[in-house]
Amino acid sequence: MIDSVSLKPRNHALIVAAGQGERSGLGLPKQYALMNGLPMVRHSVAQFLNHPNIAKLWVVIRSGQEDQLHNALAGLKGYQVVLGGDTRQESVKKGLSAIAAAGGSENVLVHDAARPFLSNVIINRLLASVDQEDAAIPVLPTIDTTINVVDGYSADTLDRDTLWRVQTPQAFDFGKLMRAHELWPDDINASDDAQIFRAAGYKIAVVEGDETLKKYTTAADFAKPSRHNMTQIRTGMGFDVHQLVAGEELWLGGLKINHHKGLSGHSDADVLLHALTDALLGAAGAGDIGDHFPPSDPKWRGASSDKFVEFAVSVIKQKGGSINNVDMTVICEEPKIKPHREAMRQNISNMLDLSIDQVSVKATTTEKLGFTGRGEGIAAQAVATISME
């Protein structure tokens, strides 16, 4: 038997979020300030968690910020928290030590929480490069004329063709970055991990960066934050109907409800989850539930419908997307939905890895009209909004 603890996952990510943000003028650490309606740190955390080639995510914070981080990342799962130090390099070193203690990694991506708008494009470029090199960093050209300033006066003009702006995340061979940090003097502050890595004698490849990876530092940066203009907001709609019959179990929103009739269908006939699946697939431009789980296939007979939802979520993640919120309506005369609504919301928030306030479940009747009004069946509608590159 292989001991899974001894296996070394290929790629880890480490987000440094231990700063106090004193230059931002916000009155709170900037990584918890709202950017596009969400705490800054949540953007990059969600991006790494949703990337299929990142095995594990570590978030380094300052002691005493545990509650702030928990609130900022409510509903997100799968990350580990490390308490950092007084400097950035001390925080990174503590994060690397935590990874090593957990079994290590082949590569590690080190990212600053102050650069919230991270894309899968950048992550993929870095991973492709670090497969061939010891390290890779994203860079952008220096466009403006660049000069030296001496005693407050303009001095010589520099050759901007050799000057590049460096961003994060930065990707490294994990073991070599550990050694580089061990060699770096504690009393010298490094600007980034690339400086530490280069001082240890290693070469660093460069990949094309992204202007949307702007670092938010000063009060002016937060006055008019840029939107992540690489993101598409997409909406998908789903609708499903199943017949109510005697002798069947009634499943709605992943919840078994006691009722004298149940829904008939090839799977567990959870009409609400079927509508949700179609909404998610529709938002991703990935067909519908029948394309992926045809009723003619016997292996889906009696299947739990949460498997369909999980598949739709995986499709969105593989396309570099994330779910913003879902809104659903159950249409029936009976059973009454309100007593079960919060349990359904919780089930679905767990399936989608969202906070419960991102999941809405409503119910209505057709005033005794039509098949739902006669109690012959239940219908459901769903709308899903996702962000996708």
Report on this model:
The chain has 389 residues and is α/β, with parallel strands linked by helices. It has helices at residues 40-50, 66-72, 88-101, 120-130, 174-183, 193-199, 219-223, 271-283, 289-292, 306-318, 341-352, 370-373; strands at residues 11-17, 34-35, 38-39, 56-61, 79-83, 107-112, 135-141, 147-150, 153-157, 164-166, 170-173, 205-208, 232-245, 250-252, 255-257, 262-264, 321-331, 359-364, 377-388. It has twelve helices and 19 strands. It is elongated and about 85 Å long. The strands form five sheets. Strands 1, 4, 5, 6, 7, 10, 11 and 12 form an eight-stranded mixed β-sheet that branches. A five-stranded mixed β-sheet has the order 16-13-19-17-18.
